[in-house]
């Protein structure tokens, strides 16, 4: 036990020296600092202490008191000095007319720090340095109200991102020091954090920030994100930099690196060096491993996580001073998926477990044939005994991997042709497991020449850089399947991903959701690839009951068959053959030959073909086709047609065109005039989009021009149609679409109600497709804009008079394609837009949206422009947006009734100012107009 004097000399003096204070330099530290006591300074009973001296006063470079330190003997609780230190600080402020000093009180072992009037007292790891205290004093004196600080919406401009930042800002204004943001993977946690840091820096609330991550790859991503979105702030470390620099604003580090820094006695950091620490992926496991880092620093802490609220344990909420289930702000996966338009893509799950995974590999689960094989290989089946969980650990079984690959191939979401899987990640257990899966793919799909699937792992130097395997997977048609171990679990962004295969068990809930997040990115409408035209969902194939392990109940895979193009063509020709036989048409023999041609094109070494070789041999016998009875036709339709999905090394654009021609002839045989007209227009529109400036296309100009005339299709024969297939189908690869982007699949009229929508225009009632008419209008406007002064004014964003608008409308109505407002409303699918809006849309001055998109855009813009709205005000706007989208309209009285009164008893009047209410009503009226 030490008395107060010994405690000071032996412990406290030493700890002050460790923080850089020179106890013997009275320009830094004054011991026994004399204070004039003011009995009226505290409105409570005053305890008269035995001394009028503060044990220590720490001075700034200007000679003014920065902090008082009250010392107690080591045997007592340091907190008994709290009130004494407070009175000393307040007396110093009054006596010297200076800023209120910070309070510290200690028994040598425990040190407490108190920023009076701002934060409650808290225990700290060590004394602050002089520069720490000067920085904290500067921040305290100069910080601006956060409610007035605008958010940089170029960094984070989505409404929920703004709301997240406001929620933290408001909690900071309430003097809280710990915050937890829960935001689904893919919703921009990092950008939200950067915008928040930027706002706090500009408002003077922080000077330095530490961004903590758990992997080097995530560190590098965070550094790049800060450099891209907030380049004005210096970042540590720069490329190749290993030594800690103390002159930066933003520090990004892994937990082990920061732990090494603070444990380095020679070059350690002060516990008060940072004003804010951001913890990426905040969950209990991080705290168990690196709690020393977080306990060491005395600062404000912001936790970020994508783990859903209901999966976060009590301890994590407690660590951030949040009630269970109530983070500072949460934006869920469901909210992102259900937004209009969606911010994230939803998913379906197919659970796939093999017999060996379920029952293990032992004598009772091994078939008799396999037992004989083992004996032939010199292995005793009785001695083989593995649990299902041992697969790809203690034992590998090629049959299990083959079964998983085969089921994946059958059930996966395919490319637009319905033959090959779309972009996919296989999550494997080990490097060897990944390479074995690759071997199965190469055997299963040999015609892919080893390009369909690639192993992408961190130890392969070919993975990295431009043109590397990862770059190829992201930007090229092939490889379609990335087989990986850990490397692609997080951090990869490929919007075209439509399949995720969990070929391994995952035991971390956070990591599991990060892996799911690889598929949640939505497609950019302006950058769609030929191998992925659309993505309304993605598929998760779970081979190890991960969803069950985490007690999740996701939506199961719907049994919607995605029929491959070769299968559809085969079935269509088969249907035509049946009709031709019934009608005694000469085309029957032709169709038999075409079906045989398709069958002979199947790759002989394909696994699907090999598995069905017995059935195929039956139909490849010439006399099979002589007498086609009902049993044979059913066999062709139900058994043989599905095998055609193995036909992949073909020109799918030519095949799709051939399918349309066959469909047209089928409609002729059925004598269905409406279908004949619809399909004819579909075919003609495709032929019209062939570029005659290409030599191979120009060579068939006579056939093309003939097929573009209506007269050709009136009494067309099978021979005529075959000429079109032979000469024009191979040219479809040169086709230039008028609506931009890659070619999309045309719908099957037999399966789906589809009508090629036509538009009639002009004095001669010309008839063209909607897409063609839209193209004609857009070409006309763009050409006129080069010389027409009215269009040039519109393009430059200038206002035009009513007379000018009428002149423009009349001129465009008198020239081909004879434009009217009603025609524009029809072809653009917007009945509310006006003539001028369509012109602005074509000139790219403004964009025309659907009603839901219009409402969302208007409200998002309002929040973006008023990004100083409170968290509650943004929540009100979200409710208002949903109400307007659901109901289609809203009256002023609605705004003071439920559901708005659930946010405030007075509805909108209790949440917004009169001026803001007027603005909101103006927005609603503008949308309604």
Please give a structural write-up:
The structure is a single chain. The protein is α/β, with parallel strands linked by helices and 929 residues long. Helices cover 42% and strands 11% of the residues. It has 36 helices and 23 strands. The strands form five sheets. The chain has a seven-stranded parallel β-sheet. The protein has a six-stranded mixed β-sheet with strand order 1-2-3-4-5-6. Strand 2 and strand 3 (65-71) form a beta hairpin. The termini are far apart.
What helical percentage do the residues reach?
40-55%
How would a textbook summarize the main sheet?
7 strands, parallel
Radius of gyration using CA atoms only:
36 Å
Helix tally equals: 36
Mean of residue pLDDT values: 82
Please give the alpha-carbon distance between the first and last residues.
82 Å
How many strand elements? 23
Strand order of the largest sheet: 9-10-8-11-12-7-13
Strand content: 5-15%
- Stretches with pLDDT under 50, minimum 5 residues: 41-51, 388-396, 737-756
Structural class: alpha/beta
State the main characteristics.
929 residues, alpha/beta, seven-stranded parallel β-sheet, six-stranded mixed β-sheet, 36 helices, 11% strand, elongated
Briefly summarize what is shown.
With 929 residues, this protein is α/β, with parallel strands linked by helices. The model is unreliable at 41-51, 388-396 and 737-756 (pLDDT under 50).
Fold topology:
Elements: H1 4-18, E1 29-34, E2 53-59, E3 65-71, H2 82-96, E4 102-106, E5 111-114, E6 122-124, H3 130-142, H4 159-173, E7 178-183, H5 189-202, E8 209-213, H6 216-229, E9 235-236, E10 250-254, H7 255-262, E11 276-280, H8 284-296, E12 300-305, H9 314-319, E13 329-331, H10 333-338, E14 346-351, H11 355-359, E15 361-362, H12 368-376, E16 385-386, H13 398-411, E17 423-427, H14 431-444, E18 453-455, H15 469-475, E19 481-484, E20 497-502, H16 509-516, E21 537-542, H17 546-549, H18 565-582, H19 587-600, H20 607-611, H21 613-619, H22 630-640, H23 652-670, H24 673-688, H25 695-698, H26 701-707, H27 710-714, H28 718-728, E22 758-761, E23 766-769, H29 770-784, H30 789-795, H31 802-814, H32 821-827, H33 835-842, H34 851-865, H35 871-887, H36 914-928
Parallel strand pairs: 3-4, 7-12, 7-13, 8-10, 8-11, 9-10, 11-12, 14-21, 17-19, 17-20, 18-19, 20-21
Antiparallel strand pairs: 1-2, 2-3, 4-5, 5-6, 15-16, 22-23
Helix pairs in contact: 4-5, 5-6, 7-8, 13-14, 18-19, 18-23, 23-24, 23-28, 34-35, 34-36
